[in-house]
Specification:
Layout lengths: L1 E3 L5 H4 L3 E3 L7 H24 L8 H13 L7 H18 L5 E3 L5 E5 L3 H15 L4 H7 L2
Antiparallel strand pairs: 1-2, 3-4
Helix pairs in contact: 2-4, 3-4, 3-5, 4-5
Amino acid sequence: MTVGVPAPLRGMIGSACLQQGLGTKSLLSANVVKVPVVRNFTARIDEAWLAPGGRKGSEMQEAAARARILADSGCPGNHAHDYYAAVLREREAEIWSKGSRVETDEDGEVIEVEVLTGDTKERAVQFAAVVRGTATPISLHHNGP
């Protein structure tokens, strides 16, 4: 199993790619076994982005990286694909709620309701479109969502 390391992080991680054998020659078994391996690699890369000097990448860079992982995880219904699709939905919801706030009603009472901003909704939709392969960062830049 090999996952590429983004160029700005290669010096911090010490390699252009992270590799680990899966211990099987079966494609079906490999698709199941690789889920925690990729999760570990992704966590290492995420930690490197957050380290001093790591410079967190943009959401579009993250979306492009996740698109490659999702594309390599097989078809819908496959355990690995379904896992990464669920992770995508969680990340999309996280982006969506970044600009949320709490509102007050007419009586001045605080209402615990998220009011989503148009910007975060658009960013979440664009992120998901890139990961799912229905758009590219360049096409979104030129044409919008």
